[in-house]
């Protein structure tokens, strides 16, 4: 990529970020996120307080603090992924076909920047903004559980990066969908794919709970086919990977059921998947008449 | 003769079974203003889009300054305003031009932005958000945007469709200025009077084919003076306005009674209607 193309790409990344930040929807997302974090803080406060009272006279066989902290934080992780996915889809909505139909794309594409660079720049803008958002919400939720219950995850950074990579993959899938579908269809398709990934994770969880190898395998294969789900379950696992004994066993029955360590291949596969999706999007875009 | 800025050779474009362009040849030289006319669906926008690399041709060749249309070098040499366009409503006119300066690699800075906004009479609206602008202002901003980076070729697809008479005049004067600056312009328009006023050359497309081309004068054909006399209507082919008094004097001297005199020449509209055979899209 030449210097001129890099400067053009930086301009498009800047425009994407500015566009995302200056739209009213982003303000709405921020307000809703503040609401979510406030509710989460309130919930965490009462959850720790009630569990502490409830467990006061019970023999110390279960670390009630760790159980409560991990459970509510696991739920916060799901909310963080969901909100990050919404933002990633919103930031990539109509980037190719939608913008071409409304006439926003043509003045940019006729410039020397080139279609592939333009597409990658739009991805970089959307992915960086949604990944940053996910990291902020994740660490805010982390701080809330630390302050309200003096609990923090066993691994702090790994799950955060896993979630950030997961939303980047969702942004790439949404971008690919934008090269083929109109705006409404794009939104529907990407959220259906997102739902399919979560369903795959649920299947793996159920397979794990009822000890069904077949169900577990189907769920795992499907969640690798949509690796944002694999990254999410691996991030969940990393939260409690250091928690052992009865507490660890009981946690597996909750939102952590079916969570598995990333393993050496998952992150590499997730990056390969991400590049593959972007390459396919660039190919489809390059063949498209505008 | 200097090489054309835009050269279109045997251009074909098919969408499935439909042939949008069926072997079009066209040239636009430096400082030349070419008007592209034709009914809706004739292939004018398709030709323009192929020239700026938005649409791939099925066959034939389009070159901008000798480079294949759509290549980075060709795109660097042109400015384009689409018929259907939209700019981000949240940004200001100045921000939009700054963004396009970065995309075009223009080093013109604030001076270029100010000059372009003044050229389209938007100097006072530099900080105005695009969503707060009228459609006409947005169209003039579109023309300014197309001129960022001083392109050698300007492709304008219906640039005056949303403009009021004052806005049209501004664009017309701008086109005259571009001619002085040796910029090649391909103007795609339905407004025959506009084309007749500003273009050096006119090309009429119908059904994907170039059906007529030439200067407005060549296309308009010979003039005539028509006189209604007591013995019937007499037509003097080739006569112009200045010949009318002499013709009338001769007829009166010959004992004819003159009731009406009309100086005729075919307008671009007549030529257009004749060329497209009354087609409409």
Overall structural class of chain A, as computed from helix and strand content, comes to: mainly alpha
In DSSP terms, counting alpha (H) and pi (I) runs of 4 or more, how many helices of chain B? 10
Distance between the termini of chain B: 37 Å
Strand content of chain B: 25-35%
Subunit arrangement of the protein: heterodimer
Q: Choose one word for the global shape of chain B.
A: globular
Estimate percent helicity of chain B: 25-40%
Give the topology:
The complex is a heterodimer of chains A (290) and B (281).
Chain A lengths: L2 H20 L1 H31 L9 H29 L4 H6 L3 H4 L5 H35 L7 H24 L2 H27 L3 H13 L1 H14 L4 H7 L11 H24 L4
Helix pairs in contact in A: 1-6, 2-3, 2-6, 3-6, 3-7, 3-8, 3-10, 3-11, 6-7, 6-12, 7-8, 7-10, 7-12, 8-9, 8-10, 9-10, 10-12
Chain B lengths: L5 E10 L2 E11 L4 E5 L6 H8 L7 E6 L2 E2 L3 H5 L1 E4 L11 H12 L4 H11 L15 H12 L6 E5 L7 H16 L3 E5 L3 H7 L2 E6 L2 E6 L1 H5 L3 E6 L2 E6 L6 H10 L4 E7 L3 H9 L5
Parallel strand pairs in B: 3-8, 3-9, 6-7, 7-8
Antiparallel strand pairs in B: 1-2, 1-4, 4-5, 9-10, 11-12, 11-13
Describe the model:
- The complex is a heterodimer of chains A (290) and B (281).
- With 290 residues, chain A is mostly helical.
- Chain A has helices at 3-22, 24-54, 64-92, 97-102, 106-109, 115-149, 157-180, 183-209, 213-225, 227-240, 245-251, 263-286.
- The longest helix of chain A has 35 residues, at 115-149.
- The two termini of chain A are 23 Å apart.
- The mean pLDDT of chain A is 86.
- In chain B, the strands form three sheets. A six-stranded mixed sheet of chain B has the order 6-7-8-3-9-10, sandwiched between helices.
- Chain B contains ten helices and 13 strands.
- With 281 residues, chain B is of the alpha/beta class.
- The interface between A and B is medium-sized, with 26 and 29 residues.
């Amino acid at each position: 990529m030449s210097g001129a193309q890099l400067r053009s790409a930086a301009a498009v990344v800047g425009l994407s970020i500015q566009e995302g930040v200056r739209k009213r929807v982003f303000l709405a997302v921020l307000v809703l996120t503040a609401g979510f974090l406030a509710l989460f803080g309130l919930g965490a406060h009462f959850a720790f307080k009630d569990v502490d009272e409830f467990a006061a006279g019970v023999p110390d066989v279960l670390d009630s603090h760790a159980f409560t902290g991990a459970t509510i934080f696991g739920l916060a992780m799901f909310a963080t992924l969901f909100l990050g996915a919404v933002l990633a889809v919103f930031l990539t909505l109509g980037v190719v076909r939608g913008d071409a139909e409304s006439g926003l794309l043509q003045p940019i594409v006729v410039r020397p920047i080139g279609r592939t660079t333009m597409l990658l720049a739009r991805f970089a803008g959307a992915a960086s903004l949604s990944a940053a958002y996910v990291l902020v919400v994740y660490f805010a939720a982390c701080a809330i559980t630390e302050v309200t219950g003096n609990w923090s995850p066993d691994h702090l950074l790994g799950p955060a990066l896993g979630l950030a990579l997961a939303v980047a993959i969702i942004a790439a899938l949404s971008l690919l969908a934008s090269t083929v579908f109109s705006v409404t269809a794009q939104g529907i398709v990407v959220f259906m794919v997102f739902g399919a990934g979560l369903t795959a994770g649920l299947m793996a969880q159920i397979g794990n709970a009822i000890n069904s190898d077949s169900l577990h395998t189907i769920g795992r294969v499907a969640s690798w086919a949509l690796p944002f789900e694999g990254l999410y379950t691996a991030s969940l696992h990393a939260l409690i990977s250091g928690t052992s004994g009865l507490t660890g066993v009981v946690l597996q029955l909750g939102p952590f059921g079916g969570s598995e360590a990333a393993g050496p291949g998952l992150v590499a596969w997730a990056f390969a998947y991400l590049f593959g999706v972007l390459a396919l999007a660039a190919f489809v875009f390059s063949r498209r008449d505008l | 003769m200097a090489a054309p800025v835009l050269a279109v050779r045997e251009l074909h474009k098919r969408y499935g079974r439909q042939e949008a362009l069926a072997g079009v040849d066209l040239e636009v030289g430096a400082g030349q203003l070419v008007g592209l006319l034709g009914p809706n669906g004739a292939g004018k926008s398709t030709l323009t889009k192929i020239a700026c690399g938005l649409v791939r041709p099925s066959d034939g060749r389009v070159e901008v300054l000798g480079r294949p249309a759509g290549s980075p070098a060709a795109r660097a040499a042109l400015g384009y305003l689409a018929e259907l366009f939209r700019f981000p409503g949240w940004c200001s006119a100045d921000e939009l031009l700054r963004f396009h300066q970065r995309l075009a690699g223009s080093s013109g800075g604030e001076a270029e932005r100010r000059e372009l906004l003044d050229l389209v009479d938007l100097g006072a609206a530099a900080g105005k958000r695009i969503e707060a602008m009228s459609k006409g202002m947005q169209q003039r901003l579109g023309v300014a945007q197309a001129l960022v980076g001083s392109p050698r070729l300007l492709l304008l697809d219906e640039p005056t469709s949303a403009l009021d008479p004052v806005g049209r005049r501004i664009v017309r004067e701008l086109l005259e200025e571009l001619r002085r600056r040796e910029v090649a312009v391909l103007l795609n328009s339905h407004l025959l009077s506009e084309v007749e006023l500003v273009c050096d050359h006119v090309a009429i497309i119908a059904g994907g084919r170039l059906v007529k081309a030439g200067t407005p004068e060549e296309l308009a054909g010979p003039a005539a003076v028509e006189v209604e006399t007591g013995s019937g209507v007499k037509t003097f082919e080739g006569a112009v306005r200045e010949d009318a008094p002499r013709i009338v004097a001769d007829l009166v001297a010959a004992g004819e009674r003159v009731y009406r005199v009309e100086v005729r020449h075919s307008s671009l509209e007549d030529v257009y209607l004749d060329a497209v055979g009354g087609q409409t899209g």
